[in-house]
């Protein structure tokens, strides 16, 4: 079985899905293919709007304020941080000062995918942690600070040599990297992506299901597991949140 | 513990949530309070758009085509039918010929709530089945046919006398009914509803949680159960889809 995760490290639900899939690799036994994309490109390509930019955004605040903390407990991600203050720039989604318009980190992951695919998973984990799980990555105002030095350290922490990390950083602005990332966004949209994360499952061997099973978000894992005849213990199999005890 | 379900029988995810909550009543032991609302009123009051009317609706079709059948299996609702052909009228969401603009069935449930609250649950089940689970309720074109006779039969099947059922039908157009339904919509929006179903949990006795826990949709039950320290076996506890076996 192959599970492709199309993600953007800016997306908190991509972070949760990445956590779940890493935990289930030894449980379900599958090949995890990480596919860096750009959420902004996916949104633009499908006419989708960021939740905060939808006309009914203000009405979703009350539930979101409870859903976030509940997810933090349920997904067992105790270090998860609130939204970065600079998720968008001060002038909104189009403001280039926001993380949403900072292409460097997803281009870096694309360059790692091209050069060191076997290390894409730990580098991805480092970028996700930087944005969502490391309080020390934030300034006093809650902005996540991203510099080339920080990105380089994530690469070397993941096992890439300093020289190779420097080459990956250099490649952030290359046409090859930009073109590969753009290609992934286009491919993902063609296959059904309209938000992040997008998950595609192939080689699953379940004849009753489509050859390519696709889904969106981080809340369909139990549904997918059931459909594929795989066990589901909750989002962290080491800390089961579901039970099959007899009623 | 009290669980209030604010729903519209037009909403397929309300149907799924209603099924799950009925099944879990004996498992979790709670007071289920059914609160009929009008999805159209909630959407208008929060500036929300029906999924099909959002600019990115076309991009969601591929995943939705798989998610529906997977939910049918996972939620164990083998009789669930496709969307009624007349969900909206031929001219779209504002077309009065569509079920989305037919106020009768949710007004009927409001009138039953006012007059026979102890029978609201089986009448609600009858209306949900009419729209989502009864192939015989549809004409050859897939339109769900709703008449006063059909609504009356749902009432009497649920245990309301013929005379009382006639009174409930008569009350569909009364100011008292309309005002009560409008009041429920306003109350629900104030409490955080922006789509259907909306679920509010109170008297839960879990000090770490807000006194009123709120959520949206039919895909947060495991999260809620975990947060409340309640068991989760999947959407049908009689046919567990989760497991807690040792890894």
| Helix-strand pattern of chain A | EHEHHHHHHHEEH
Which CATH architecture of chain A is right?
A: 3-Layer(aba) Sandwich
How many domains of chain A? The number is 1
CATH superfamily of chain A: Glutaredoxin
Distance between the termini of chain A: 33 Å
- Number of helical regions of chain A: 9
- Which two chains touch over the largest interface? A-B, 47 and 47 residues
Q: Which oligomeric form is depicted? A: homodimer
Biggest sheet of chain A: strands, sense, closure?
4 strands, mixed
Output the radius of gyration of chain A: 18 Å
Q: Tell the overall outline of chain A.
A: globular
Which strand order do you get reading across the main beta sheet of chain A? 2-1-3-4
Mean pLDDT of chain A: 96
State the low-pLDDT regions of chain A, or none.
none
Determine the strand fraction of chain A and express it as a percent band.
5-15%
- Approximate helicity band of chain A: 40-55%
Considering the chains and any ligands shown, give keywords for the structure:
homodimer; 247 residues; alpha+beta; four-stranded mixed β-sheet; 4 strands
Description:
2 copies of one chain form a homodimer. Chain A is α+β, with helices and mostly antiparallel strands and about 250 residues long. Chain A has one domain (about 1-230): 3-Layer(aba) Sandwich (Glutaredoxin), CATH 3.40.30. Helix content of chain A is about 45%, strand content about 10%. Chain A contains 9 helices and 4 strands; from the N terminus they run βαβαααααααββα. The first copy, chain A, has helices at about 10-30, 40-45, 60-75, 105-115, 120-130, 150-155, 160-170, 175-190, 220-230; strands spanning about 1-5, 30-35, 200, 215. In chain A, strands 2-1-3-4 form a 4-stranded mixed beta sheet, with helices on both faces. In chain A, α2 packs across α8 (about 175-190). The mean pLDDT of chain A is about 95. At the A-B interface, α3, β4 and α9 of A face α3, β4 and α9 of B.
């Amino acid at each position: 079985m192959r599970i492709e995760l199309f993600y953007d490290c800016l997306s908190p639900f991509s972070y949760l899905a990445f956590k779940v899939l890493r935990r289930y690799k030894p449980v379900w036994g599958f090949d995890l293919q990480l596919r860096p994309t750009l959420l902004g490109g996916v949104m633009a390509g499908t006419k989708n709007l960021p939740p905060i930019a939808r006309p009914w955004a203000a009405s979703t605040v009350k539930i979101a304020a409870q859903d976030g903390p509940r997810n933090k407990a349920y997904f067992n991600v105790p270090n998860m941080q609130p939204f970065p203050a600079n998720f968008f720039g001060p002038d909104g989604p189009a403001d280039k000062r926001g993380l949403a318009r900072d292409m460097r980190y997803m281009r870096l992951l694309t360059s790692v995918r091209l050069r060191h695919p076997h290390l894409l998973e730990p580098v991805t984990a480092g970028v996700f942690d930087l944005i969502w799980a490391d309080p020390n990555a934030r300034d006093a105002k809650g902005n996540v600070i991203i510099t080339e030095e920080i990105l380089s350290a994530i690469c070397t922490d993941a096992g890439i040599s300093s020289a190779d990390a420097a080459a990956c950083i250099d490649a952030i602005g290359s046409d090859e990297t930009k073109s590969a990332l753009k290609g992934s966004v286009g491919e993902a949209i063609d296959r059904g992506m309209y938000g992040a994360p997008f998950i595609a499952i192939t080689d699953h061997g379940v004849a009753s299901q489509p050859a390519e099973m696709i889904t969106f978000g981080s809340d369909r894992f139990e549904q997918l597991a059931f459909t594929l005849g795989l066990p589901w213990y909750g989002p962290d199999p080491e800390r089961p949140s579901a039970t099959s005890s007899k009623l």
